[in-house]
Amino acid sequence: MKQTGDLALVKKMNTAIVLDAVLRYAPLSRAQISERTGLNKATVSSLVLDLIDNHLVADLGPGASSGGRKPNLLEFRASSGYAVGIDLGVNYIRGILTDLEGGVVAEHRLTLKAQNVESVIPRLLECIETLRARIPACPYGMVGIGIGVPGLVNESGTILFAPNLSWPEVPLRTIVEERFGVPVTIDNEANAGAQGEQRYGAGRGIANQIYVSVGIGIGTGMILNKELYKGAGGFSGELGHLSIHADGKPCRCGNQGCWELYASENALLEQSAPLGYHDLDALLEAAGRGEPEVLALFERIGEALGVGIANIVNVFNPDVVIIGNEMRRAEAWIEEAVQRTVARRALAHHRGKLQVLFAEQGEKSAVRGAAYYAISAFLGKMKGSGV
Ligand SMILES: [Zn+2]
Question: Which residues form a coiled coil (predicted)?
Fold first, then answer.
């Protein structure tokens, strides 16, 4: 029995290795998989056959060859299943449907007028339902759902604390899994945004990436050594509550002088109210017209962002810091101040190869990261099943 168990385990591991090779290097031949992985050709052929039977790999037929018989090339079948990604915002729900490579095939967005849990949950389920209805005929259908939320989430997918939604504890994963019967991943929106940029945006191929989600508050998602760092309880990344003024304004978190009180969209709107501007759109438009008071305000916010980023750079020594969420829209008006402040304040050796960038996926960083969670959970399961 022991031996059978070991063989099954070896097959699972080898299946994962072969599927990874296809995901990373396709189109490629069985012989090339064998070369890249060190598995012998017979093993590769047998595992590839299983993957073809399971609709995850397609045989494209003969490709180009430098001489002799042309080898058949293999490809990952991205359209054999679909994932739903959801970005649950404070006043909107954004949903996307993606194939198994994360390519967006459908989108659905709705505006929330009420934030209470009784009215938001039905609309969230409705958004998922709308996207599910748009899945083309395929072997696996909806493989999973990923949801980014503006709050703290524990390991069982329960939202523990969502200050801007004022929700009680909500077992969101259980609710959504019971309704749709597929695996559901719930994570903080900053973590989801970090994944979105790491997989599809400005952080592609970068090992150490800190994503700073600057919206109503500030949250951060940390990719260290290509892995999302979540901390002991899954609560890492609350860098919006890093104190940047020891005797500063009191924060709702109980601390004072927190970074987000000076550098978030809320901080911007608080300071722009006396000038008669009450939303980011109006401020961006005024900055475009060259209104000096508004330009000075963006400059201050950019500097405040730079102060916090310099602290992050000194702690984590990242390759890249990516500014995302709403404030990324102000790139043209804050970038210079952010870069200048980081250059002046961060330690010299830490700045060596550092890049401070703005989110490439724009408003979709979090929703694409959320869909990625669902895809990666599905592929992880398929690799582990030894198909
Ligand atoms: Zn705070």
Answer: none
Report the C-alpha gap between 43 and 50 in whole angstroms. 11
CATH topology (fold) of 2-76: Arc Repressor Mutant, subunit A (1.10.10)
pLDDT over 80 (residue 5): no
Centre of ligand 1 to C-alpha 352, Å, is: 30
CA–CA gap between residue 339 and residue 190 (Å, rounded): 21
Contact at 8 Å (CB) between 353 and 370?
no
Could you tell me the residue ranges of all domains in the chain? Answer: 2-76, 82-193+366-384, 202-360
**205/320 Cα distance (integer angstroms):** 11
What homologous superfamily does CATH list for 202-360? ATPase, nucleotide binding domain (3.30.420.40)
- Tell me which residues have their CB within 5 A of the ion that is ligand 1: 241, 251, 253, 255, 258
Alpha-carbon span 318 to 306, nearest angstrom? 15
Ligand 1 centroid – CA 74 distance (Å):
52
Cα gap 35→44, rounded to integer Å: 10
Specify the residue for token string 């475009």: 288
Q: Which CATH superfamily is domain 82-193+366-384 in?
A: ATPase, nucleotide binding domain (3.30.420.40)
The per-residue pLDDT for range 151-209, each reduced to its tens digit, is 999 999 999 988 888 899 999 999 999 999 999 999 999 999 999 999 999 999 999 99
Do 58 and 74 touch, CB atoms closer than 8 A?
yes
Candidates 273, 244, 247; CA nearest to 258 is 244
Neighbours of 250 (CB within 10 A): 11
